Amino acid sequence: MKNSGGKRRLGVLLAIGCLLTTSPAVYSEVILQYFNTSWNEIAERMPELAEAGYTALWLPPPFKAGGQLSVGFDTFDRFDIGTKDQMGGVPTRYGTGDDLKNMVEIAHRFGIRVYFDNVMAHNGGPIPGYDENTPITCQPGFVPEDFHLMVRADGTFRKMPEWPNWNDEWQVQHRNPFGVDIAQETPVNESFGSYEGAQFPKYSGVRHPDNPEYYLDSDLPIATNWAGEAVYTFANKEPYQDTNSNGRFDWTDTNGNGQHDVGEASEPFTDTGIDPSVSWRRTAQWGYGNGRYDMGNPVGEDVNVMLFRAIRWFMDQSKCDGFRLDAVKHVPSYFFGDTGAGKDYVNWGYSGQIQEQFNATHGYSDWNNHRDTCFNDRNPRDDALLYGEHLSPPPGYDGYANAGMRIAHDGVVNGIKDSVGSNLSGMDQPGWGSYGVDAGMMYVMSHDNNYLWDGHYGSAHALILTRAGIPIVYTDGLRHAGPPDWFPKPSYVPFLGQWNTYYMPNLLNINRNFARGDQIAKWGNQDLVAYERRDKSDNGGMSDADGTVLLFAMARGWTSGQSLDAFNTTFPEGSYLYNYSFHGGGFYAKVQSGKVRDLGGGAIYVPSGGYFAFSWRSPE
Fold first, then answer.
1. Burial tier of 486 (Cβ tally within 10 Å: 0-12, 13-18, 19+)
2. SS3 106
């Protein structure tokens, strides 16, 4: 009875999700960073998240890490998403692989994208070859030469010096206090040997010889990319009868090529091709009816190419929509992709491989440009969203942005934390504090930074949820981590309006209905910030007045109310507008001589610490 009830509830949720996704989205993206919460609970919360106005989730690293209780930033096995019995058990901190896939599927039914945090710079777990009891193969898929390691006289290995001088680019990319540092530089490992900085040839070999399912099936080209190269994806998905009860497909490899060929004896299987989940892919191009069990082709790789393959495999398994890339400055920017003339369409590097797999997994065919909608949130998304955490130079930001990712640094969070209660100057400008509207991200708290005073939560979120760009709201699921690490950082943000608070539901509603198009600065001084949003996407020839969809104004706390007479609005003369903010209650205003005034012609004052959001009155 309990199980059947759960199935009935899930069926209702999925049905609601289908209804929600039948209407085209006209609102901008709002990401909820949702940490410290199981995949199953997030799946159960999906109706609430969609109704509230969140359009995407940023979730913690999904791979098996240094232990079952790990948050995930000490990633251990990039081919274990809660499917292998290691590091203390099968599930990760957040659940099993099936839980993860189910959660992503439900998110997509509700029109919510899913981005996972991803660590490339280092590994958790033991140092390979640390002593006679630690094999050099203890890091799955890696060998010691893949890391920056000191080789001792007795043949064992140790980490190089851990803490870098943060002003020294070489040290930033060759030292790592957070794990075993991976050597992504080419053509050689630049710090492996008896002393720091010793160079050593990079290892190349077959990393997972017993797991063809981890490799692309290079016998089945499914498309041709813009560079004229064949595109491949993953196989080993056709249903088969495991008559030997060993969890793998068995056959007689008559010609010794490591692949099942037509006519070779095997366990019974259904010849559905490499993507039996999608009916329109049941074609010869996708292996349907070709008489063989389609399999990946293990090939030799250096550590970089193995990491490319691992992230493609996860995209294929999870069907996710992008990644937050952790601590990118610890990795050379060229690892991520081409920065030259062909950067928009080539599949080079980590970013390029993600984008190629995104097309293969999600069925997109924009092979001529893998980046345009990553850097433009005003167009329908047909690329993976990639944003890299890069808190400060060196190295500089530009190389990473040119390699295909937005830049997420702490400019907005630190600027708002330090100034929202004292000086609003400059906050009217688009892109303030970030790497820019189209290349940056905005957040006021995160798993690393929760130093915003809770009395400023409303003002801070008002600024990021009404301005141009992609905002991120942070929650730890209200499951606060404790000592000694307090990680992820506790968050008390009422992300769904908990505790009878109103500002988050109010701001998400304003964002969904009006926060679109360009941001036009109107006023910015110590006590008052104001800007408009202008959307001409339906008709580029319309006037600025006709394209204006929102006037946002906020007053600093601990000051008197601030008059809107300080500036002129672009809304047409005589317009009747409505205040959608819960501050001051819903009331009407009128544009008179370019000013937003009350209906009696008097000045309107934004209350201390409050905000107003004016637009046309829409049917509700």
1. exposed
2. helix
How many structural domains is the chain composed of?
2
Identify the pLDDT of residue 27. Answer: 56
Residue 245: CA count within 13 A, CB half-sphere: 0
Q: Please give the Cα distance from 288 to 271 (Å, whole number).
A: 6
Which two tokens mark 508? 């998400």
Gap between the Cα atoms of 259 and 287, Å rounded: 14
Burial of 296 (0-12, 13-18, 19+ CB in 10 A): buried
Q: And the tokens for 170?
A: 């070489």
In a domain, 272, yes or no: no
Q: Which residues contact 9 (CB under 8 A, 6 or more apart)?
A: none
Q: What values do phi and psi take at 25, rounded to 5?
A: -75, 130
Could you read off the pLDDT of 90-106 as tens digits, one per residue? 999 999 999 999 999 99
| Cβ count near 165 (within 10 Å) | 10
Q: In whole angstroms, what is the distance from residue 217 CA to residue 285 CA?
A: 12
Domain boundary among 509, 534, 562: 509
Q: Map tokens 């924009």 to a residue.
A: 366
Taking only the tens place, the pLDDT of each residue in 496-546 is: 999 999 999 999 999 999 999 999 999 999 999 999 999 999 899 999 999
* Length of the chain in terms of residues written: 620
Domain that holds residue 576: 516-615
Distance separating alpha carbons of residues 102 and 84, to the nearest angstrom: 18
Report which of 316, 315, 354 is spatially closest to residue 346, judged by C-alpha positions.
354
Q: CA torsion sign, 560 to 565 to 570 to 574?
A: positive
The answer on pLDDT for 12 being more than 50 is: no
The per-residue DSSP string of 212-263 comes to GGGSB-TT---EE-TTS-EE--B---S-B--TT-SSS--B--TT-SSS--TT
Strand bridging mode 605-606 / 562-563: antiparallel
Q: Rounded to the nearest 5 degrees, what angle is found at the Cα of 174, between the Cα atoms of 172 and 176?
A: 70
Residues 34-40 have a mean pLDDT of 98
On the question of pLDDT at 25 being above 60, the answer is no
Cα(101)–Cα(3) distance, rounded to whole angstroms? Answer: 19
* C-beta of residue 387 within 8 angstroms of C-beta of residue 393: no
- CA pair distance 310, 307, nearest whole angstrom: 5
Percent of the chain beyond pLDDT 90?
90
**Is the pLDDT confidence value at 15 over 80?**
no
The mean per-residue pLDDT over the stretch 242-251 comes to 95
Q: How big is the CA angle at 535 (ends 530 and 538), to the nearest 5 degrees?
A: 170
Residue 375 lies in a domain: yes
Strand ranges (E), 424-496: 442-443, 471-475
Q: How far is CA 439 from the centre of its chain?
A: 14
Confidence label for 620 from pLDDT (cuts 50, 70 and 90): low
The answer to whether residue 396 sits within a structural domain is yes
**Do 17 and 103 share a structural domain?**
yes
- In eight-state DSSP terms, residue 468 is S
